[in-house]
Amino acid sequence: MFYKSIIGLEIHVELKTESKMFCSCPADHFGKKPNTQTCPVCLGLPGALPVPNKKAIEWTILTGLALGCQVPLFSKFDRKNYFYPDLPKGFQISQYDLPFCQKGSFRLENKRTIGITRVHLEEDTGKLLHKTVRGKGVTLIDFNRSGVPLMEIVTEPDLRTTTEVKEFLKKLQQLLRYLGVSDGEMEKGSMRLEANISLRKKDSQELPDYKVEIKNLNSFRFVIKALNYEIERQKKVLDSGKKLGLETRGFNENKGITFVQRVKEEAQDYRYFPEPDTPPIRWKKEETEKIRKSLPELPEEKKEKLIKTHQLSEDYARILSRSLKTVEFFEKTVKKGKKELKPEEIANLIINKRIDINQYSPEGLVKYLVKQKRKVKLPLKEVKKVVSEVLRENKKAVEDFKKGKTTVIEFLVGQVARKTKGQADPNQTRKILLEKLK
Ligand code: ZN
Ligand code: MN
Known about the structure:
Elements: E1 3-14, H1 54-66, E2 74-75, E3 78-81, E4 91-94, E5 101-107, E6 113-123, E7 127-133, E8 136-142, E9 149-155, H2 162-179, E10 191-201, E11 212-217, H3 220-239, E12 247-252, E13 257-263, E14 273-274, E15 281-282, H4 285-293, H5 299-310, H6 314-321, H7 324-336, H8 343-351, H9 362-375, H10 380-393, H11 395-402, H12 408-419, H13 426-437
Parallel strand pairs: 11-12
Antiparallel strand pairs: 1-9, 1-10, 2-15, 3-4, 3-14, 5-6, 6-9, 7-8, 10-11, 12-13
Bound molecules: zinc ion and manganese (II) ion.
The site of zinc ion has 8 residues, from loops.
């Protein structure tokens, strides 16, 4: 039987705000000494009251707008109740039925549109550390991460192949970085993925009556591996005439397989109810419009601009706009060098010669490029003149060459370079020298 994969994604993104979601502890927790960035609010102590982080809310709206979402003028936080040691309050403040953003869309290169169901805001949990202390296995808890703003982006089950999944995730990561709301580093856990997958018969139009959720996928590579494994596993089950149900699976990175974690709970199991300590959020249209106006140029616009304003090829524009840092460096360099250099020359250097942009300032790069250009710019006639001079002044080297010591040619090339202050093309110099020494 032939099947088509139906894939949806849930992406958790840690926002890089200065403080946490509901308290003033620092949000940047990576690599910090455990439990040094906590307070009664993020430790869930009785009586502590949450105060929402305005920046985190605005960044969530900003991300939603960049994903083409609608922003309802009324929204609220809810409590999602469950017990786990990394969640000291016994509930997570999240959003249930009235998320900040909904019904967006995202276009892939193949022109297919992936629906964005919602973008909501919640708080991160603490982190469990499983260790061996004095020969005993123990679990320690670090609450530095507890309460860090966590944005959740949920897609419709519109993705059909792992290639689409990969492209979507890469572009989403790029978008988050352009917006400046998260570093999107998967290795640091700032971007964490879950994927839903089911299969339907190729000629069917209905969604399957089951889905399997794969949790905690912490790299792009693992998402693809886990999905490919699931596609094959589900095919076999369906081909054998058995049924698949709702379940949550983990991914074993070493074995490259998924395994059952639990049979999926329903939303009602979480007993969601409105967060009583935080009033609902009401937006005025002007306020959300103000956030919309603050949207920076997004990757696609940046790419188009490179093509239109700087006459770059589609390929060059795509490569440069992959990272905001690179494209901004390019634009600054173009500005600094506009008298002497063409944008294409600068793009060419960054892309093909693989210049490390961390080692140059835009001014430095302009100087470097101009120097490079001058080197090859000395007219042939001039180079020939200098070569004759050098040959006259270095009789000994010429004799050595004629005796068969051909390596002196490099010494002579060096002499020409010195006299021309590096403005002669070494290959051209070598050729002229060889001709004259024949
Ligand atoms: Zn705190
Ligand atoms: Mn979540």
